[in-house]
Design goal:
- The complex is a heterodimer of chains A (about 260) and B (about 450).
- Helix content of chain A is about 75%, strand content about 0%.
- Chain A has one domain.
- Chain B folds into two domains: about 190 residues, P-loop containing nucleotide triphosphate hydrolases (Rossmann fold, 3-Layer(aba) Sandwich); about 120 residues, abc- transporter (atp binding component) like domain (Coagulation Factor XIII, Chain A, domain 1).
- Chain B is elongated, with a radius of gyration of 30 Å.
- The chains are: A mainly alpha (about 260), B alpha/beta (about 450).
Amino acid sequence: MISNLRRVFRYRALISSLVARELKARYRGSALGFVWSFVNPLLLLLIYTFVFTIVLPGVHPPELEPFALFLFCGILPWTWFSSSLLESANVLIAGGNLIKKVLFPAEVLPIVTVLAGLVHFCLGLPILAAFLIYYRVPVWPTDLLWFPLIVLIQLVLTTGLALLVSALTVHFRDVRDLLANLLTLWFFATPIIYPITQAPERVRRLLNLNPFTHLAIAYQEVLFTPGPFAQGTRLLAVAVASIVVFLAGYFVFDRLRDTFAEEV
Amino acid sequence: MNAIQVCDVHKFYRRYGRRKQFATLKSALLSGSVLRDLRPDAVFEALKGVSFDVAKGKTFGIVGRNGSGKSTMLKLIAGIGKPSSGTVRVDGRVSALIELGAGFHPEISGRENVYINGLMLGLSRREIGRRFDEIVRFAELEEFIDAPVKTYSSGMYMRLGFAVAINVDPDVLLVDEVLAVGDESFTHKCLDKFAEFKRRGRTILLVTHSLDLVTRFCDEALWLDGGVAKTHGDPKRVIDTYLMDVARAENDTLAETGIRDQGSGIRTKEPEPTDPRSLIPDPAPQDMFKAGEGRWGSREVEITAVEMIGASAQPAHLFQSGERVELRLHARANQRVSDFAFGVGIFNAEGVCCYGTNTQIEGGVADEFAGEGLVIFAIDALDLVEGTYKLDVAVHRQDGVPYDYHRLLYTFRVKSPLKEVGIFRPPHRWSFSGGIRMSGL
């Protein structure tokens, strides 16, 4: 397993080329091209602003103003997370031709999916930053140092789950449909469209078992909540959990690896 | 020093029953049988204990019918898939030409695809940069390299895939039937490239149906049949044994179809006399040369069985060009007749009459036929070119009205080591004089 991980590292040039290809191919043929990576989150943010300032003003606690921005702090990373998982459920089957005909480590494919999602996530950040400045949300400068760490933890967690999901889907195609519904549930089980403080005590304990809860809170803490970052323990716990998930995901992937060429 | 060592390799493919096909994660979880369901319940053994070695620098050919396990073997050597038991060891960098251009992305340019494909095959970015021009020149795609791959013709696509794979410069090159991709000149280029590989002491493993390529090109060959290594060694000898087996199998198939066709008439001994319809002769088609296969006639005289006997002295359906062949017609006169003639016609697969004759044309005078009889039409040399042929046999009145006409009911094949064209091979000799020197004829 360790030697396989090292081999993946050797293929980093391939991974970066594939990520670049993924991004290029996605926008090939569209008039705006890469601009879509900025326009998509911008439009999303405008829609949320419209809904929560004009259609539903006052359904959220007043201290979470501007609420659209609060939402956005959670939704941007969530979009990366959920789209990566949904895509990696398909990625081995879609790349079946490669797996059957070319010798290269199959984990490259889900990893590329997650990294392409990361690039989109990063392209959404300037939009978020622009709105933070526009609304004069006070961001603690030292908080920003935490930001890359949170992204890294999410990367590890997402990659681990992507490996697991992609390997399982080869054997059980229903994982795809199951996953779509599971992610919807997961979305609502994460304090993204509500602050965790609003959840009843009993439910809050359950929510705390969800690793993405801590990531969402960490993002909100860094970008939205005033005051210095105070979620170090949370972050440490979720970091440990993410590494465990990654190792477990990679273990399953590694065990099923030899069956891919026959099953896809 | 061996480049490839294959030792007692078995490969099983799982086959799921109906139940397993519809098994879902949910049902597997509910019955707690996730791990059990991942285990095969029925298996297909694609390779049954194959062993061979390929010495460094040798060119090795694998031949065999479809489904004999050739490609499976190649994939195991390439490392795509693991043997179920046994070991495969390969020394050095392997490049597999299994499917050309697998992994090309249609939306991006040929240039980017070359880089990605090269990285996938294990080259570094710098190595690809160094070989890039060579790859493009080899693929003859200088003008189109920056166009998206989806605009390429299938030939261009394959050429680019081949050019990348061959330029990986592997120690061991695995080739699975990919030479049929380009036009003649590209095929020659590929063969030249293989020859260059060989000169540089690289190992090539070739899976192909082009037996000619194996005899011309390989140092050693292996014949796989049904997952078992049948023979292994000198390519000429291996190919000959393989071809003999193919011929035998073809003969068996033809014999089977022969029996099936005869089922429509010949082996049914007696038309039931109680059935009044059987007394009415089948209508004869207007133009017999245009008619399809079938049997008709008034049946006062019947041809009850037809056999072809070649050099083996056994009924056969496969003959060498030039072989002595006897066509035997077993006939029976249901009533005594004195007006009759026997005829034979040979047609090729396109329905062209190669030869037709009858006893009357050749001056035979019918006297009497009563009871049973055997007609032998002996051909001293079956001088037909290779191909499939069909036979007409008939017994009819001298004015042409048929007693029993069998139209194209019998099939036989002619094999020839030479691949001449046409139908008829007149016995001939070449000789040269003056300034012409030629040998081998």
